[in-house]
Amino acid sequence: MTKEPAGAAAGPGRDPEAVSKFVEGFAAQLVEAGMQRMPARVFAALLASDSGSLTSAELGENLRVSPAAVSGAVRYLSQQHMVAREREPGSRRERYRVHSNQWYEALTSREAVLKRWEDALREGVASLGEDTPAGRRMAETLAFFEFVDGEIAAMMERWREHRQERFGRG
Predict the structure, then answer these.
(1) Per-residue exposure over 20-36, b if at least 16 CB sit within 10 Å of its own CB, e if not
(2) Do 82 and 43 contact (CB within 8 A), yes or no?
(3) Global confidence as pTM
(4) First to last CA, the chain
(5) Pair 22, 41: CB distance under 8 Å
(6) Which residue in 47, 59, 64, 90 is deepest, having the highest Cβ count within 10 Å?
(7) How many CB atoms lie within 10 A of CB 78?
């Protein structure tokens, strides 16, 4: 693994201020979409690094935050399948890597959540009765999630094909 020096997330020949501005701007967009602020900043910093991989210390230095803040952010991002933890060879230090297909991973992990919601909604429809106003509302919500689930699966297949054509990897 290539080690990216702390503070060098901008990469060679890049303006560190411009990279920092991108990281904070993209993080702000993620926050607007519902992500917590610190995980958004960590994710954007990883995405902007050439290696796609930084240590906790490098993230802390680049973002000017504490190791505890980085740790909490990485825990959240790991749970969302947006980053992976890797052990540096011969070291006890961990590196955090953004997946090259992080959006695919994040959306795919949502499928399991949708399935659980669908199961709960089916139970709700059965317990409320399909002919009641609440049961009909619950059935429509269930139908919506079933539709979304099918669309996500089809969209992910189209993405794999598009990615293969455009970037030559599946």
Answers:
(1) bebbeebbeebeeeebe
(2) yes
(3) 0.71
(4) 22
(5) no
(6) 59
(7) 14
Q: Write the pLDDT tens digit of every residue in 139-154.
A: 999 999 999 988 988 9
Q: What is the pLDDT of residues 102-132, one digit of tens each?
A: 677 677 777 778 889 999 999 999 999 999 9
pLDDT bucket at 1, cuts 50 / 70 / 90: very low
On whether the CB atoms of residues 19 and 9 are closer than 8 A, the answer is: yes
CB 67 within 8 A of CB 56: yes
Between CA 51 and CA 38 the distance in angstroms is 20
With CA atoms as reference, report the closest residue to 70 among 61, 60, 79: 60
Cβ atoms of residues 101 and 81 within 8 Å: no
83-87 sheet: strands from edge to edge: 53-55, 94-98, 83-87
DSSP H helices in the chain: 16-32, 37-48, 56-63, 67-79, 102-128, 133-167
**What are phi and psi for residue 83, nearest 5 degrees?**
-140, 160
Token representation of residue 1: 């693994």
